[in-house]
Amino acid sequence: MPFEALDPLLHSQLRLAVMSLLISVESADFVYIKEQTGATAGNLSVQIDKLSTAGYISVEKKFEGKKPKTTCKITKQGIDAFESYVKNIQQYLKP
């Protein structure tokens, strides 16, 4: 049985970490995601943009007082992609 191709967007370590985090919470702000993943702000911002462009997450930018706040939430499309990725990777891991 041939292996299903792994989604290259989710095969990146940081993007996979972001998706793994977001699938378990209703939403998360940028600072929390940065702390949990250990990513730099610049790299995380680029990866969030890629996930958002793909439709895997939604990003809301607003201000709380004078401080900007970016909140990310996984989309239905993102949940489907993540679950498919996990299912496909399990094929590779079966003995």
Strands of the biggest beta sheet: in what spatial order? 1-3-2
Shape: elongated
CATH fold description: Arc Repressor Mutant, subunit A
Summarize the main sheet. 3 strands, antiparallel
Q: Radius of gyration over alpha carbons?
A: 14 Å
| Range of strand content | 15-25%
- Helix percent reads 40-55%
Question: Would you identify the CATH architecture?
Answer: Orthogonal Bundle
The figure for the number of domains is 1
Q: Name the poorly predicted regions.
A: none
Order of helices and strands: HEHHEEH
Give the oligomeric state of the chains in this entry, treating copies of one chain as homo and distinct chains as hetero: single chain
- How many DSSP E strands? 3
Number of helices: 4
CATH class, named Mainly Alpha
Q: How far apart, in Å, are the first and last alpha carbons?
A: 13 Å
Structural class: alpha+beta
Going by CATH, what is the homologous superfamily? Answer: Winged helix-like DNA-binding domain superfamily/Winged helix DNA-binding domain
Mean of residue pLDDT values: 94
Write the topology of this structure.
Layout (H helix, E strand, L loop, with lengths): L12 H10 L5 E2 H8 L3 H13 L3 E8 L2 E8 L1 H18 L2
Antiparallel strand pairs: 1-3, 2-3
Give a summary of the structure in a few sentences.
The protein is of the alpha+beta class and 95 residues long.
